[in-house]
Every structure is written in structure tokens, then in C-alpha cells.
Amino acid sequence: MLHSLDALAGKLSPGSKAGPTSPPASQLDGNANRVHPYHKHGTISNSPMNNNNISSKHNKNNILNASPSSNPEQDQPDPDNIKMFVGQVPHSMDENDLKQLFEEYGRVHSINVLRDKNTGISRGCCFVTFYTRKAALLAQDALHNVKTLRGMHHPIQMKPADSENRNGKCGY
């Protein structure tokens, strides 16, 4: 199917050549999303620190990939890593605040704070992926139903993510 898409792209843009001279096939990122071969791994996407002149309050999600590296294959999380869903997060906490909280338990690969589409305000939950399964489980043991963050009435809810909460709701 990829070859037929390349052929179609060649028809739409005849100046570009598809086939053996094309760049290598796309890779998967830590979230099993296809990444364009020229895309830099380990960057901060849609973040105010990215200096892309886009106001972060209008971004759907801010994603923090914590460890930029010149060799992306070497700096990938373990194959058995766990993406964790975290609820009961104060709306005032951003990716960097959460990174500080979670790094007490192990190296963090990425944090994705879910935000309102229109306002960009945090929905009070996030996804965090640690480099190791052990770090994710250690964080869950230390935080789930144990630690209540400042400004919240209920303790953190942390569990393995079934899939990224597609309907945008962060409640339990």
C-alpha cells in the first residue's frame, strides 16, 4: 500500500521522485506513531519553549520528550515500558512541573498534558511514559491514592493507560 501511496504522491507532485531514491521508511515513536524520517527525535513539541510563535494556550496538547539525543535508537524507552494515565493533576502544573515530580521515580521519556481544544487550559490529567517499566510501577506505588497535590481535594490517580483518552475527559 505504501508503494501505491508513493506512486499517487508522484502523480500529484511530479517533480518529486518516489521509489529507490526516496528517504528510508518512517519509524515509530514511543507512542507507536509514525515519525517522518527527517523529523528530529527528542524535541519539545508545541511548547512555549519551542519559540515557534504559537501561543501555547491554543495548542491541544503539549508534549515533552524529556531527553534529546544525537542517537535516537540508543535513547529509546525499554520495549516493556508502560504509558501511565495520571489524574487529579492541578490545572496550574505544566509538563516541566510534572517532569520534576515524576523524575523522583525514574527517567521520564515523555509527558503529554491533556488540554482544552479552545482555551489550552489543562484538563487536570496527563500521560507519562518512563524509560523503564520499573520506574513507572515505582511511581504508581508511591503516588496512586497516596499523594494529593497542592490545590486538589483527591489524591493522584495513576494507572497504565489503555489508550490516550480520545474523548478528552479526565474524570474517573
TrEMBL record:
Keyword Coiled coil in annotation: no
Top-level lineage group: Eukaryota
Keyword Kinase: no
Single GO molecular function: RNA binding
InterPro entries reported in the protein's UniProt record: Nucleotide-bd_a/b_plait_sf, RBD_domain_sf, RRM_dom, SLIRP/GR-RBP-like
Keywords of this entry: RNA-binding
Region (Disordered): 1-82
Domain RRM: 82-163
Biased composition (Low complexity): 44-65
Record-linked SUPFAM superfamilies: RNA-binding domain, RBD
Protein name: RRM domain-containing protein
